[in-house]
User: What shape does this take?
Amino acid sequence: MPREVTMTAVNVQPMPVTTQTVTIMRGNDWSTGVCDCCDDCGICCCAFWCFPCFMCKTADDFGECLCLPLLEINGGWAGLGCPPVSMAMRSGVRERYSIKGSICNDCCTLCWCYSCAWCQMGREIKKRKQPFTIVNAQAITIPHAQLHT
Assistant: This one.
C-alpha cells in the first residue's frame, strides 16, 4: 500500500540588504605628543640619522614637493623668527586632519622643539594614511521547511 506524502512548497524570500554608512571621527588632537618619539622608533631613528632626508620624506608623504624642506635647511630662516616651511607644513597637517591648535602654538612648538615637531608631524601623517577595514556581518534566520505527511 503506497503511502501518500503531501509536500508543501516553502518560499523563502531573501531578506532585504541594509547598507550602513559608518563615519569614523578621529579625535581633534594630535594622536601623539611632541615628545612621544618612542611611539614610532622608525620615524625617530630616521630623523636622528638624517634629519633633512626625514623632512623631505615627510613633506612627500603629505603630498607636498619633496624638496620643499630644503628651502629651510641651514637656518636660512633664522631672521624670520619661525621657520616658514615648517609653519606651513604644521598648519597644513592641522588643517587637513582637523587638529586643534593655532599658528602661535605651531610657532612656539617649532622654535623650541623643531625636530620633535617634525617627528610628531611624521607620526600623524603615517597614522592618518593607514587604511582601516570595517566588517559588517548580519545574521539571517531562515525558517525550516515543513513537511506534511
